[in-house]
Fold this sequence. Notes:
By secondary structure, the protein is α+β, with helices and mostly antiparallel strands.
Amino acid sequence: xxxxxxTIQAVGLGWDLHRLQVGRPLVLCNVTIPFEKGLLGHSxxxxxxxxxxxxxxxxxxxGDIGEKFPPSEAKWKGADSGRLLRMVLADVTRAGWQVVNxxxxxxxxxxxxxxxxxxxxxxxxxxxxVGGERVNIKAKTGEGVDAVGRGEAIAAQAIVGLG
Length: 163
């Protein structure tokens, strides 16, 4: 590992899902993906970063994204989730934690994410101030089942190790 191995002392799990809607940009891991639909939400609705934020907060015992950035507050309307992630990372770092690794799974029927995974991985590593070897991005489909499988939504889950 870059910067030396670090032992994981806490683990957090995050999950998010947003509906797809025509006329919105599709942003995943702070990368805009060309597609005719984007995710509907109070912020930019980046399900991948929202899952990472919840995983970070969970591992550090700091609540969840809805408590930290309530959708009832107008100041978070249209917010860049990369900015929200950096704010949470600062809180987690101030509490004495360091990101050891992060693993993200994005579940979508369309668009296919293979061509964008390397860019998403690089961007997430930049946002977390870690080497790319500490970040993994996986893309799965919904196999035609439920809202994700019907192409109505995109979901993501993330696990974060802190040391």
